[in-house]
Amino acid sequence: MSAGVDLDNVCADFGSFRAVDRVTVHIKPGEFFSFLGPSGCGKTTILRMVSGFIRPSEGKITIGGQDMRDIRPNQRPTALIFQNLALFPLMPVWENIAFGLEVRGVDRKARRDRAEELLRLVDLPGAADKTIGQLSGGQKQRVAIARALAVEPKVMLLDEPLSALDLKLRQHMRAELRAIQKRTNVTFIYITHDQGEALAMSDRVGVMSQGRLQQVSAPQDIYNQPVNGFVASFVGENNIFAGKIGNISSNMAQFETSVGTFKATIGPDAGTAHNPKLYVRPEHARLVAKPVNGENAIAVEIADVAFEGNFISIQARDAHGGILVAEARNDGQGSVPSPGEKLHMVFDAERAVILADETPAANATP
Amino acid sequence: MNDLLRRYGPVLSILFAALTAFWLLALVVLPDLYLFENSFRPYLPISEVGGPKDFYSFDNYLTFFHSPIHIQVFVWTIVYSTVVTVLCFVIAYPLAYYLSKVARSNLLPTLFLLILVPLWVSEVLRSFAWFIILALKGPLNILLLGIGVIDQPIRWLTGFRGVIIGLVYTYVLFMLFPLYNAIQSLDTNQIEAAEDLGSPWWRTHWRVILPHAKPGIASGSVMVFMLSAGSILVPTLLASTSSRWFTEIIQQWMFESQDWNTGSAYAFMLLLLCTIFVSVVMRLFRVKLSDIAK
Ligand SMILES: Nc1ncnc2c1ncn2[C@@H]1O[C@H](COP(=O)(O)OP(=O)(O)OP(=O)(O)O)[C@@H](O)[C@H]1O
Ligand SMILES: [Mg+2]
């Protein structure tokens, strides 16, 4: 049914520009895998290599164990959902969905039946004879999914398919896509620059920057155990402190910054990094009147308090005027500090992590 | 209009408008109206113009229907204009597709220049050039003989062959540009989407690219067809003894017989019948006028 996708040291070059740099990842059959990264980091390029529209300049792509080198896009067991969907506006909805079957020589009656069936699957019954122009954004989205599913792909490739939708619809379609993936058990490779989307839907997420894969992990691990500064700051918020590593004891170290020396966990490769930084998530920072002895603490003055409903976001200024952020759950009874108040921001050594910057990109000048 | 007023002031604006109106009225509309009126009047010696015999009738138009040879020439004109149109499409479509979707964009200016340069040479010269190229002992035959493709020189300029070649050459660009525009406007993702769904190249063209290009095909075809059917230069220069074009008959009426009345009637006949033919064909292919205007 579904097939795994293996990328082995895959590179893509446009002239002298390396858009994808030595990406290696093994996507399992039936997995929902997301590539997450900022605009221009090479996500679409990866997808176009898997679907066959671009040849990797180096490396190997296999799908279901089969080398894809000389296999044209129309022979691959993949179906791509384009960033702009690329539905055929001159065909009615059902012909759009049945196009892949038409290509395979399925007769008209069977095509029509299958299209109706898929329309029910994507929760759009009765739209068969509409034109594409008569559909709303979310409906077009579903037709594109149905059209891709019709060819029974082993791998479904989705290029930011939800980016054109409004927030509400986007959240609805997230759940829908996830459900369709579970129902059909097709391998999904999903591309997005929206971290919420990637974390909420995926089995695993690959975070990319400048053509390089930075980290491949389950969503919780991406968030809780980022391997470098890029992943930490691209996914979620952080208080970031520059400084240098002092005494190291096993996986902990002293980190010397301009606002004090803190005990923190050392991330991968951070011990030898050029320019390590300390990352503390706002929800792991607390504000107290008097820190316990030996606790990581920074003297701050409260600058602004934003009540967000289920949580409270507090901005505080350190001795040098740098802005730090702490977030507290709103349990309905805790007192809220007021601007001007002098407090201490404290955080646990286990929840503060020293990370190297991202792995340098191929294009970065040394 | 307001823009014009603001930019050039009332005096200049009125002058522009007046000049345009004069050009349209005096040089386009009035001569046509004059011919149109004349086409309903008999051809008379000067002395009898305005006399008792000078009254409106359809006689000039009926002359056409009473002359089997003229009808035959008309039919051939339509048939071969259609052939020219189809040939232009067959040549222009792959080229338009190549230019709009395959060629690298930095090559485009050069390619367009190469295509356009022949247009700068006058139509007369180009037709004469073909006359020379296609002659029995002309360069084309010498070349083909030389590389051994043929062992007898081909008589190119028999039947309608010369006319067809000349007309295709002259009007193919009128097909190319609308096609280029139409295909250019197609989202390349749609071509890739079709391929991704397993479509071989020919089906992608048949189901995705051609339907999208239909308005372009229609406007290109109408233009090539009308221009071919109304062409006088190419048929005169590249005709053989057996090929007569309807416009040549009109010319005969006007300049050899000096009968402008019947000549005008034939000219309007050509316009009318071609328009009807084109409308019928457009109907058959389900093209609407509004598609073309897009
Ligand atoms: N055909 C091309 N020629 C030259 N450079 C290209 C080409 N396609 C992509 N690039 C470059 O490769 C890099 C990666 O592009 P890609 O489209 O993969 O980014 P992306 O991650 O999908 O971004 P987005 O989120 O904006 O869609 C970009 O810097 C882009 O400029
Ligand atoms: Mg992209």
TrEMBL record, chain B:
<keyword id="KW-0472">Membrane</keyword>
<dbReference type="Pfam" id="PF00528">
    <property type="entry name" value="BPD_transp_1"/>
</dbReference>
<dbReference type="GO" id="GO:0055085">
    <property type="term" value="P:transmembrane transport"/>
</dbReference>
<feature type="transmembrane region" description="Helical">
    <location>
        <begin position="73"/>
        <end position="96"/>
    </location>
</feature>
<dbReference type="GO" id="GO:0005886">
    <property type="term" value="C:plasma membrane"/>
</dbReference>
<dbReference type="InterPro" id="IPR035906">
    <property type="entry name" value="MetI-like_sf"/>
</dbReference>
<dbReference type="InterPro" id="IPR000515">
    <property type="entry name" value="MetI-like"/>
</dbReference>
<feature type="transmembrane region" description="Helical">
    <location>
        <begin position="217"/>
        <end position="238"/>
    </location>
</feature>
<feature type="transmembrane region" description="Helical">
    <location>
        <begin position="162"/>
        <end position="180"/>
    </location>
</feature>
<keyword id="KW-0812">Transmembrane</keyword>
<protein>
    <submittedName>
        <fullName>ABC transporter permease</fullName>
    </submittedName>
</protein>
<feature type="domain" description="ABC transmembrane type-1">
    <location>
        <begin position="74"/>
        <end position="281"/>
    </location>
</feature>
<keyword id="KW-0813">Transport</keyword>
<feature type="transmembrane region" description="Helical">
    <location>
        <begin position="12"/>
        <end position="36"/>
    </location>
</feature>
<comment type="similarity">
    <text>Belongs to the binding-protein-dependent transport system permease family. CysTW subfamily.</text>
</comment>
<feature type="transmembrane region" description="Helical">
    <location>
        <begin position="265"/>
        <end position="285"/>
    </location>
</feature>
<keyword id="KW-1003">Cell membrane</keyword>
<feature type="transmembrane region" description="Helical">
    <location>
        <begin position="128"/>
        <end position="150"/>
    </location>
</feature>
<feature type="transmembrane region" description="Helical">
    <location>
        <begin position="102"/>
        <end position="121"/>
    </location>
</feature>
<keyword id="KW-1133">Transmembrane helix</keyword>
